[in-house]
Amino acid sequence: AASFTPATGQVDLAVIPGDGIGPEVTAEALKVLEVAAPAELKFSRTQYDLGAENYLKTGEVLPPSVLAEIKGQDAILLGAVGGKPNDPNLPPGILERGLLLKLRFELDHYVNLRPSRLFPGSVAPLSDAVLGKGEIDFVVVREGTEGPYTGNGGALRVGTPAEVATEVSVNTAYGVERVVRDAFERARKRPRKKLTLVHKTNVLVHAGQVWWRLFEKVAAEYPDVTTDYCHIDAVMIFLATDPQRFDVIVTDNLFGDIVTDLAAAITGGIGLAASGNVNPDRTAPSMFEPVHGSAPDIAGQLVADPTAAILSGALLLDHLGHPEAAARIEAAVLADLEARTPGQQRRTPEVGDAIASRVAG
Amino acid sequence: AASFTPATGQVDLAVIPGDGIGPEVTAEALKVLEVAAPAELKFSRTQYDLGAENYLKTGEVLPPSVLAEIKGQDAILLGAVGGKPNDPNLPPGILERGLLLKLRFELDHYVNLRPSRLFPGSVAPLSDAVLGKGEIDFVVVREGTEGPYTGNGGALRVGTPAEVATEVSVNTAYGVERVVRDAFERARKRPRKKLTLVHKTNVLVHAGQVWWRLFEKVAAEYPDVTTDYCHIDAVMIFLATDPQRFDVIVTDNLFGDIVTDLAAAITGGIGLAASGNVNPDRTAPSMFEPVHGSAPDIAGQLVADPTAAILSGALLLDHLGHPEAAARIEAAVLADLEARTPGQQRRTPEVGDAIASRVAG
Ligand SMILES: CC(C)[C@H](C(=O)O)[C@@H](O)C(=O)O
Ligand SMILES: CC(C)[C@H](C(=O)O)[C@@H](O)C(=O)O
């Protein structure tokens, strides 16, 4: 364990099923993962019961000993965490900051990878005129370890009319350059070789300058990659009217959060959106999770779509050095989506079984 | 002048046509404004040549004496400012921060009002399934004087590998409560009486807490208004798949910027989106402007759609206390949109003339 690059042999896999539909979709992702993985790869799973339910039971979000154990694993598969909305015993943000973001920061997941592809057969909320412009297939490289997500800031005179609260976005050359470089690498490997920087440099000047300057600097090393810049507000318009223009997007933590949810929405919904919290330097395990939440309202009914979790498993295999196995999962999902008929209601395990058997051949 | 509430008599109107298509659309907005205004209202216009062109000529963005003069006007109509993209003589952000944001901050435009309505006849990028859910008609109350737009922050060790740049979002009880209160007032006056707070309280905790707390506090005074909360990322999904759920949205400066561009895109495009930078306390003139930019690529050809500028004129009349006159412009725009035929090419003044003659009756 703890080489974080086991392309063969035993892979120590931390599984965090989480809350709500998390365990349901994780079970299907694991099912497909086992079928898709090449024979030389053996998963040794350790399950970690973390999330809202565990917090309500134990009062702990992520004990240091558990974090230390997870750090020794090769990779992490996460379902979804989050309790009932407005549960008075669940302070808002406690799981987000104490668990999800904590893992991203502690494990240096500086590349939050979110592919968006409109698979044929899936239902998009866009008009035929927009969809008719061509294939939608882009990937967002979202910075994962700094920006407005650091928790920096504070408040003064809380609860008085003179209260002032600040929220500080921290952007370092160290943090920006490495994620920009990763995005250029990914852009170079794609047919269109196009990279768009997304920011709001005309208003957020301090942060904007370091992003802009390092983007330009790294661009000079990738003359084969076409570059482009878009303000975050303009991206909204393009995603709604011309999403085909994007190939790879690189952006900060908060803009990336916003852009990827819209990207998921226009490509068939959050039920299909996979993500990887990647540590490209492999100094700690990377973590793979669907973009969707724990959906407590439909939990326990086995009606959740496990596709996003299954596709997150594909990203995991790709990260472990098995792009062909990842491609097999993607192809199976594609075939499954094409075979879906409108109004068809399949239970969560049925979807997992269907995809797994397509992967098996 | 300088009562900022002249419902009758002379209205001193500052006109800032700006760059690119700005002057073209402003001319049509003024045309319609004159026709729609009640007889007792007389506009006395002063034109201010500000923007990229003026900056390139004079080296000044907004001289203090000009700002002082504008402060003495009753209201401002702005076209659009901005030069050619990547003009090396135009430092990025200089007009945005030196002119647009400067005016919003100096004139205490704490309510940035952006209505979104899908007029019948206009082309939306959403599918029939989404559009079929019902009418889209909501308004975003965007905070305009603080948040991440203050310019607070800085950079250290610029240009070295140790560079760190911060961007500070400043949120005060003073600033948050007044805009939240304004939004509740607006929600109360609408049929559905629903107000949604948009933020990212689970991550931006310091800012999130003051927004959340003051939203809850003011809500207690408006028991007739239904309240709701949405994370900014979830708003992306709802705007793409169920925009009908929104009635009034209140949010911070940056989230408001992002949300309103997507709102404009899904309701027929930025060519129709009007906005008001409102000082509800009337301690300074309010400013009305289309959401779109100066579009230098199509400037001078008289092909720009002046509808957004014309609708901004309606917001101006409403602000001056003439909701009926504003409604007449809206109705004329609606009729004009319904009468448009696909592929029809009208020149900018033709659209203005058509709407003006509908207003005239
Ligand atoms: C749950 C939340 C902290 C998280 C984020 O903001 O990153 C989520 O929205 C996501 O996109 O993974
Ligand atoms: C031009 C820019 C500074 C401005 C903003 O960010 O507010 C614009 O995008 C807008 O929405 O009016």
From TrEMBL, chains A, B:
Substrate binds at R104, R114, R142, D233. Binds 1 Mg(2+) or Mn(2+) ion per subunit. Residues 340-361 are annotated as: Disordered. Coiled coil: none annotated. GO terms for cellular component: cytoplasm. It is an enzyme of class 1 (oxidoreductase). NAD(+) binds at G293, S294, A295, P296, D297, I298, A299, G300, Q301, L302, V303, A304, D305. The record marks Y149, K200 as: Important for catalysis. Homodimer. This is 3-isopropylmalate dehydrogenase.
